Amino acid sequence: MTQHLTPTAPHDLIGIGFGPSNLALAIALQERAEQGGKAFDALFLERQSDYNWHGNTLVAQSELQISFLKDLVTLRNPSSRFSFVNYLKVHGRLVDFINLGSFYPCRMEYNDYLRWVAMQFAEQSRYGEQVLRVEPVVEAGGRVRHLNVISQNLHGREVSRQARSVIVSTGGTPKVPQAFAGFKDDPRVFHHGRYLSAMATQPCTRGEPMRIAVVGAGQSAAEAFIDLNDSYPNVQVDIILRAGVLKPADDSPFVNEIFGPDYTDLVFNQPETERERLIREYHNTNYSVVDLSLIQRIYGILYRQKVSGINRHGFLCRRMIESASEVDGRVQLQLRDLGTGSTEARCYDAVILATGYERRSHRELLAPLKDYLDDFRVDRDYQLLARPELETPVFIQGFSQQSHGLSDTLLSVLPARSGEIAAALEKRLEGIRQPQSAPEARRAAGLSVSA
Fold first, then answer.
1. CA-based Rg of the chain, rounded to a whole angstrom?
2. Which DSSP symbol is given to 209?
3. Cα 111 from Cα 440, distance rounded (Å)
4. Strand 350-353 relative to strand 13-16, pairing
5. In b/e form, how buried is each residue of 39-64, taking b as 16+ CB within 10 angstroms?
6. Looking at domain 174-249+287-357, which CATH architecture does it have?
């Protein structure tokens, strides 16, 4: 049963998801209002019961892979009270963090920073609500000036709210290879996104020996390997990857410039074929790559095995998983060596899929609006291109890599993007629809034109 909680006037904005992207937007909207801009009636819906950013992956070895200065707000407003530096000051750790001599906080601390910011927007957020779909409210003449946002609360009841605009920031969906389709909801096979909770149910937590496969060649696979090695002495681990090696992430200074605001403009203004080339050229900054320090640790662990003659772990490179099946209560993987063509079967007590994420949840949520949209393409301000009948602006965050570049799914772009969307949203809702150049959008968002 759907419970209608539509107020006398629709919300100006409903944000779907309250991860870092929409959290940065909440900051940008509030700071614009404090500087004389419009004060929006904004509400953010989050499916988790409380604020937790990648909480199931926060192992002790996890560190943020970008500078703390690329927090939710500093690159747009360095004096903001929502900065990571102010978080450290409030919690009495500013001097201690400086003494670390590092630009990279651990993810556990960054999660706490995000939670601290989110608490300051408690009145604008609702937790434990899974948004199911966004529907058009069609008026006479076919105009759509409001949208219905349908969510399901923790009690299983559907709740309907109306909005003058919607912003979808639901992040990635775990990617599960087809070979493992038969193991859906099987506790022995799980995506790395559920790492901590899934590992808590495994026999190794009781000291029992296990053989575990980690599938993948990126940062998540490396962190899982290190954690299994350090935390569970009775576990044997095989890393299984199609590539020949673990490749280091390129985070050198010149390459890092591709995550700046100017580069977003550059990518967006290119023809589609050139955008694709730029993304391929810098693919190794973000996908299937590992921090060099972790690669060195893993290599050292495997080397010491050779010295001792005790082969606890395996590094199975150039392997393709052809199938996965249950054999005698274990998960059997049929592996093909891509170098020699030979095959072998290996059995495991558990398989961890560090196989990345897909970006498709926005299409599922906005499916009822499909006929109004231009194949989910966006303009420079991240608003979905739509037919004139759809007068409610719909924005997306984290789904525009093909048009805006590799930074679109990363933390680096949050301050600039949230400022640009906040400025665009104010104009759209006030009925100002003329096109806006990138430099004008930058000025409206409180950013310098050159940076």
1. 23
2. -
3. 33
4. unpaired
5. ebebbbbbbeeebbbbbbbbbebbbb
6. 3-Layer(bba) Sandwich (3.50)
Query: Which residues are registered as beta bridge partners of 378?
Result: 384
| Domain 2-172+359-444 shares a fold with domain 174-249+287-357 | yes
Q: What pLDDT, on the 0 to 100 scale, is given for residue 259?
A: 86
CA distance 215 to 224: 10
Domain layout of the chain by residue ranges: 2-172+359-444, 174-249+287-357
CATH of the structural domain 2-172+359-444, one choice from 3.50.50.60, 3.40.640.10, 3.40.30.10, 3.40.50.1000: 3.50.50.60
The model's pTM is: 0.89
212: helix, strand or coil: strand
CA separation for the pair 210, 225 (Å, rounded):
14
Query: Mean pLDDT, 10 residues at a time, over the chain (451 residues)?
Result: 58 97 98 92 95 75 84 96 98 97 91 96 96 96 95 94 97 94 95 94 96 96 95 97 93 86 90 90 83 95 96 96 96 97 97 95 96 95 96 96 91 94 93 44 41 33
- Report the sign of the C-alpha dihedral through residues 349, 354, 356, 361, in that order: positive
Burial of 110 by CB count in 10 Å (0-12 exposed, 13-18 middle, 19+ buried)?
buried
